[in-house]
Amino acid sequence: LYTVYLKKVRYHRPTRSLSSSHSDSDDEISHLEWETVRVRFVKAGTLKKLVEALSTDDGELETTYINVFLATYRSFSTPKEVLKLLLQRYEELAETPTSNGKPDYHE
């Protein structure tokens, strides 16, 4: 189960090149720009799904979730079981075909 909330984060604009003209208005440069992003926060799940949430398919990690998981997993599992599931998860990710259609093995 996930809770989804909106988070306001600063948007980083690309820097101007040295060759660009100085005709840009100061208003365009001086104000901060923000964007709102959707953030998923894990509330509950099976041990397998909780471990899967540690490593997403796109490689993004939620450090808050990792810290909470590592601080609490011993209350509902063992280090051996969590390590086994982590290894299985990374083996699954390594066998997933990449954009060229071949598995991405790291030997």
TrEMBL record:
Listed SUPFAM superfamilies: Ras GEF
Recorded GO MF terms: guanyl-nucleotide exchange factor activity
UniProt keywords, alphabetically: Guanine-nucleotide releasing factor
InterPro entries xrefs: Ras-like_Gua-exchang_fac_N, Ras_GEF_dom_sf
N-terminal Ras-GEF domain mapped to chain residues: 38-107
One Pfam entry name: RasGEF_N
Domain of life: Eukaryota
Protein name as catalogued: N-terminal Ras-GEF domain-containing protein
